[in-house]
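Interim report, section 4.2 (structural modelling).
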Amino acid sequence: MKPSNKLKILNDPIYGFITIPNSIIFDLIEHPFFQRLRRISQMGLSYLVYPGAHHTRFHHAIGCMHLMQKAIQVLRFKGVKISEEEEKALCIAILLHDIGHGPFSHAMEHSIVSGVSHEEISLLFMQELNAEFNDDLTLAIQIFKGKYHRKFMLQLISSQIDMDRADYLKRDSFYTGVSEGNINSERLITMLHVKDDHLVIEDKGIYSIEKFLVARRLMYWQVYLHKTSLVAEQLLIRVLKRAKELVKNGVKLQASKPLSFFLENEITLNEFNSDCLETFAKLDDYDIVSAMKNWQYHDDFVLKNLCDMIINRHLLKVKIKKKPIKQDVLDNHKKTLQQKHSISDHEANYFVFTGQISNQAYTRKKQNINILYKNGKVEDIVKASDQLNLKALSKTVTKYYICYPKDKL
Amino acid sequence: MKPSNKLKILNDPIYGFITIPNSIIFDLIEHPFFQRLRRISQMGLSYLVYPGAHHTRFHHAIGCMHLMQKAIQVLRFKGVKISEEEEKALCIAILLHDIGHGPFSHAMEHSIVSGVSHEEISLLFMQELNAEFNDDLTLAIQIFKGKYHRKFMLQLISSQIDMDRADYLKRDSFYTGVSEGNINSERLITMLHVKDDHLVIEDKGIYSIEKFLVARRLMYWQVYLHKTSLVAEQLLIRVLKRAKELVKNGVKLQASKPLSFFLENEITLNEFNSDCLETFAKLDDYDIVSAMKNWQYHDDFVLKNLCDMIINRHLLKVKIKKKPIKQDVLDNHKKTLQQKHSISDHEANYFVFTGQISNQAYTRKKQNINILYKNGKVEDIVKASDQLNLKALSKTVTKYYICYPKDKL
Amino acid sequence: MKPSNKLKILNDPIYGFITIPNSIIFDLIEHPFFQRLRRISQMGLSYLVYPGAHHTRFHHAIGCMHLMQKAIQVLRFKGVKISEEEEKALCIAILLHDIGHGPFSHAMEHSIVSGVSHEEISLLFMQELNAEFNDDLTLAIQIFKGKYHRKFMLQLISSQIDMDRADYLKRDSFYTGVSEGNINSERLITMLHVKDDHLVIEDKGIYSIEKFLVARRLMYWQVYLHKTSLVAEQLLIRVLKRAKELVKNGVKLQASKPLSFFLENEITLNEFNSDCLETFAKLDDYDIVSAMKNWQYHDDFVLKNLCDMIINRHLLKVKIKKKPIKQDVLDNHKKTLQQKHSISDHEANYFVFTGQISNQAYTRKKQNINILYKNGKVEDIVKASDQLNLKALSKTVTKYYICYPKDKL
Amino acid sequence: MKPSNKLKILNDPIYGFITIPNSIIFDLIEHPFFQRLRRISQMGLSYLVYPGAHHTRFHHAIGCMHLMQKAIQVLRFKGVKISEEEEKALCIAILLHDIGHGPFSHAMEHSIVSGVSHEEISLLFMQELNAEFNDDLTLAIQIFKGKYHRKFMLQLISSQIDMDRADYLKRDSFYTGVSEGNINSERLITMLHVKDDHLVIEDKGIYSIEKFLVARRLMYWQVYLHKTSLVAEQLLIRVLKRAKELVKNGVKLQASKPLSFFLENEITLNEFNSDCLETFAKLDDYDIVSAMKNWQYHDDFVLKNLCDMIINRHLLKVKIKKKPIKQDVLDNHKKTLQQKHSISDHEANYFVFTGQISNQAYTRKKQNINILYKNGKVEDIVKASDQLNLKALSKTVTKYYICYPKDKL
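Predicted structure of the assembly:
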């Protein structure tokens, strides 16, 4: 299973070609844990709005690894010492940083394995793989956990200008066709530097960072939090919640073995042992969609209708407001539904609900973005900018939504 | 379910925006028969080679419809009369021309519903929809069946320069990242004309057509018939064949209801009634992948291993040759496998087999491409070209392959 | 000279194809006044920094006209009545809106024809052409002058979201390769609407407008006001100023006839008669560059060195600061130069000078951008935005620069 | 003038960023001989057809140098030893390979310096620079002259798959907007290898080469030999021919000094000394266009009209035929013109003339393209291809044209 000594390359519509740098990366990609990512949509159900957005976690992870190679090359060019060992570890860590994602990425965290984050599961996967690969992942794990003494390395993997964002913003913009969200990852990387063990951006990159933050903000409101994606994700979360509820009440539900396991058991981080991980590793979008295709013919009014809505794409109506939704508006929609179908209040809550969404384009508190001047001085980008708009962008924006059935239900 | 009178637009990474021209097109897209295409991969298992190639039949069908609108606009500009009724019918016909595809597109035709082509099933779907839509699809069906008196209209849907090819070559090139396969659909369409009721290309488009044919040839050999795609598709066909075989022998196999139906019944075109179509409409890639994920743990040596190969992507070895594979080469590989696993000859055939692939870049006999000169003369492109290379491209190229297990099996 | 009834199309690397809509547009493009724009660089001397930026005013003007056609199509689709006469006038007005630009666009206004803006000269050209084209441009001129009763039409030509900006930002970003400056003109146009005779943007376009303003800001600071472009333009202005000065003092300078005319005569708007316009129409980048190529061997120390700097691209050193340059810094540089070359203070001023640059990403006072909500309400974008960053962007940013010779002089 | 130790990068719309690898390359680019290329159009007068095609020899030369760096990186990866000295020489040689081009590139060779090719002048420039740069260009010159023992190095600079073509096809396609001519230079380079000291292409690249050759063929007929470009170039050649003729007859013509020199003197390769080269180095597109702008008002009927045709773009009519133009057709057009203007036969020949154009997509005789199989075998691409179309493409195609005045003259 060793890769030959030939140039292993992958076609990528975005970067042209991606080179697999060495045999451990190759072997990790070949591993069933990683191949599973081919069956997990990067953007959840967003393809219901953007029909091109069927790209996967697999593709994204490899894209990140590609950008990491570029970043290492740029930093070395500027005199930052990075050993071959560290390079390998950085590539492994970014490749696996999201391997813990469950089906439909984020929806899963709020339903199936509630209380365990995908980062924690990523770490479990890395440890399992480390055992299998004779401790070859030890340094990668150290960096990923923030335990390595060179702090900037973690920042390449997880910060406000990490290789994760550099890839996903570009990739999601590409596949959705929302070209305003496109960022110039190549240029951003060209301007990376390290100062006092922290990742910084050279001062000539100020406008690019500003643009990057605005593009990210646009992607959040226009794509990730698009009202149709939002309602689809909320429905998906409710499908799984209802399924768990029914199972707990002794109702029989057809589902794949791994999905049944997670419907029947409430798993906490402590119980997430090797067997459990093995089962988790068998779970992907296909289990969920197949279950929903089946459940749309189930007897339960709630489950049936939720599944039908997603599978045949006649979703709930959704409205987004700047102010919290008033209780009586919510109540009215529920009353209408209950009168029509004589369902309980608890059941009606599955179809009529409110919530809030929020986004902060730039966070000043945590891992802020620093600008490096030619004279060696370092300054937070908000201060470095010649205008106050970045300060404005560091305020959190919150919006409120309500979902309720269309005429069809 | 009526679309509002607003500009209904879809984001498309390739064309920018796609406009839904009218309410019947909108309603057809909303229909579960069509929404199903969201769950059918346009390029089958090619994403195992090209990780970006997860686009769907849904997206392609809408892309074709978009190009059809452009073609109609160009032809009208040049004085070709096309009524609103005909325009609507053309858009419907191209939108639905591939609706009969089963899971993983082409693999299905050689396994699940053998003996019934996807075009025939497309027609069944159209007729079913026609009943539901108060005969609004009658003209579209006439054109699709070649029964309409204006012959060029069928050529826009099905010929060597139809809107289907104009979209899929561009789209597949885009999503695979094989940029050499990219064609300039917009320019090709700009050069369309109609002469004596036949679709022709204006003479200044000769080099573009030549380039189009060479791009198509490249896509065939480098992408569609890529050896890894090829072996994956062959494995998929064999999974379904084996599954049918086992079911016939009374072995119980877990599968979704629609998949079970087609595993248990051999359906011919005559038996393809409305109920059967309804069941077929519930079948998509998710049924197949979920089944394989389950079957990889089945007791049957053949089924288990075939499924495992696809799901975890350690496929058979494949070699492509210019000459037919010799019998003794085949026999040797089979013998090696049988010695290792003590399986029957019949079982070994699932893992060691040969076949042939062929492609003809340009077909002169059927629906040839005609060039229109400024003086009104029309000539086959092979004659019109100033070089003999198009003549050369109209020869069929055949290659031969052999597949056999790697060390792992 | 009438265009045939064929589809007249132009290749454009940005939009694919541009169609010439009718014969008057065709004839205007053919006119020597307009052909002249082929010889005027859109971005002045920016190609000294961005080697790809050799695109011309000709190309930009046609690009604007293309976007105008799109905008008209979108507005009509939304029910805004625009007559064929108005459509023609809008296309003419945008095509000719910049025809009054002199060589190297903006540099000219500050040297050759100081005191007469390019807009005023554009109007003179339009009036001249109107006479030649039998008053066919009357409505276009009315719109351009703001005298037409439908005010939104002028806004399509000149406002903060006009077709001029929609093209030049996209085009300049494309040709410089500064991809962060790229804007999605197509999407912006899709969101245009007219309310109470004013151009507005539908509310779903808020984030796109924000992105557009930030992209524009980035282009200003990173491209248009790039320090090397800045110094090149300042040198060019000084070349022409010095040349005029020498001519006034009786020094003989080789130059083309039209250039000599403008060096010898100080023309005000009143004196800009038909003959003068005819001479102006013969002036383009080639006259200036050819003159400088010649003048780099002239006896005059100032003229010779200024020309040499531009032609052989060893420009002055330039520093950009957030605060005004102190007088003694300026004086020191001048002293150094005067000691080295024993030139007068007046002469030294040509090589050592300061100045300021400023940009306002969004102007609230004049032609502000209004957002149209679904309920019909209209609001300034600054208020409509969910964050304060647009307010921040409406503050003017000013920077200060100093230029002085490198070692070479 | 030394470059700092910073990463010197240039924006390129095609490759994103181009890095200047070392200080001698930097200094060569800064040299006035090279800066001159900023004022020479890469595609001559093609911008009269493709308004975006204003890119320069300067940009192309730097693009080639960029691709050379990539090629060296790929070859080294595959184990081909290339020393740092050789790398520098290869970059210099490709950077300067076209430095000998005169104004409007090819037109010049047939008029101003007839009998001296641009390659010969490139060599003269290199030798001149070598003296100035302390023999740092010696190895580059050796490679360029084919005198270096490692033959594949010349093939990187000049062969059917050299870096020159890899850049100009991509660049010309990009700037004209003729996207069918686009080639995937990156992929081609990825497939380069060296076998027995010859540049070869790995066998998996066969279809890409085929596509490259067809794209090149398309660019020739559709762009480089586009009938309008063709007639513009022919007119330009005749302008210079007529100017020389007039000068020889004692007529006074206004022109820049360097242009006057070449109009007055017939220079052969032997006479091309250092002074002459210095004068040549001052000649660029601006001298020619400025002269034509002036000469359009000259008394000479021929010169005046030829210049006017180019400057104001009302060119001669041109027809392209598969067979030679018959003498009587030519004679008739001449007669018509002579009757109208009472000019001599010699003068009429400037406006009515025939000629032929030809192109061979692939040349088998000289520097053929060889395919390297995995087993080490090497084969000419024509044989290696699975179809005969490449054989067909190696036939020369010839076409014939006639030019004559439109009504306007």
